């Protein structure tokens, strides 16, 4: 155990002791009445915990809802007691490591105490006894506060122990279940309000709430896993196509990798955000994917192409865009693929766009594409030195290419030594390893408790 982990464990132990002491000190006999309510909430919490849903490294349990009712209808001490008992029995059942059990105990003692105290103190400032709406709003607010506190403590422990990103955990664990959490909060608040009207009979509705919560959560996470499986399949198809293209024509595949590297660097130089930089990289890798449909007579031609062959070649942006657009959430990439042969003066293809009508990232890819075609081995034209290629870029700036982007790209080449070694498999492999980047486009933007 690292020094930081030891300090964190010590802090959790101190927090647990302080919460237990505070709840005992503030406990009143009235908080534990009726005993039937305490026992029913404890039983429901234990039953729900036994049916917990596993999501990635987290277990999501409806016991949180039972704890909220204990906070709202009983008091700090009973809520903490239920949280601790549920955690101890869960730890025994799942054989949790001592460190993890300590984290869970500290968490499941702290947030019930904080929530119950929040509701209790708010009740002292407002007439919760006589105002049904005020009571409902306070309980709902407490639910959301302690839900976030619960997540922050568990995720924070993971971040400190294992170096995982809190931001990433928030996006991938907290947000996917937020809709079901909000729905469950409303249902639980309704049960709390109804209990004040009809007593223990309202807990029959709460049992239904737990079943609905577990069902909605299970279905939500199942659909998310299916979406991720589909995204992985789509990603595998694109990866396989690029690799197959590399087997058919090493030159074209390495050209795409070079354009991806140059495009990303130019997007960064231009001041584009991270998303646009990733878009430039992905679109660079896929900008010539339409050539996958070329016959070998064109793809591997050693002599100048005929006019008919050039007509086929000119269709590759549309073919590539059509192919990429079939993949869910790849629309921005397809737009760039479609427009990467448009010209600044409007004489390009396939749509004859001009100037800033052409998407910025497509103009970036066009500059990177033009430079690499001139400096890398190519069957259609002679190879130019970097200085000759820079001179040619300057010559066509304002006609074929965006002149400001040309200036930025030349500055990169001259000051940072930006290059791609076409004969080096390592450079190709580095740019082709794009699963992490492309998956951002294949998944919906998503953000437990």
Could you characterize what this model shows?
This protein has 20 helices and two strands. With 449 residues, it is mostly helical. Strands 1-2 form a two-stranded antiparallel sheet. Strand 1 (53-55) and strand 2 form a beta hairpin. Helix 2 runs parallel beside helix 4 and helix 16 (360-375) crosses helix 17.
Distance between the termini: 26 Å
> Average pLDDT value?
78
Topology pattern, helix = H, strand = E: HHEEHHHHHHHHHHHHHHHHHH
Number of helices: 20
- Going by helix content, strand content and strand pairing, the class is mainly alpha
Strand arrangement within the widest β-sheet reads: 1-2
Assembly form of the protein: single chain
* Overall outline: elongated
Uncertain regions: pLDDT < 50 for 5+ in a row? 437-449
Instruction: Report the sheet-strand fraction.
Output: under 5%
Total number of β-strand segments? 2
* Main sheet summary: 2 strands, antiparallel
Computed Rg? 30 Å
Helix content: over 70%
Short recap of the structure:
It contains 20 helices and 2 strands. The protein has helices at residues 3-26, 35-50, 63-73, 76-94, 98-125, 132-162, 166-174, 178-198, 202-248, 250-269, 274-286, 296-299, 307-314, 316-325, 331-339, 360-375, 386-396, 403-416, 425-432, 435-442; strands at 53-55, 58-60.
Topology of this protein?
Blueprint: H1 3-26, H2 35-50, E1 53-55, E2 58-60, H3 63-73, H4 76-94, H5 98-125, H6 132-162, H7 166-174, H8 178-198, H9 202-248, H10 250-269, H11 274-286, H12 296-299, H13 307-314, H14 316-325, H15 331-339, H16 360-375, H17 386-396, H18 403-416, H19 425-432, H20 435-442
Antiparallel strand pairs: 1-2
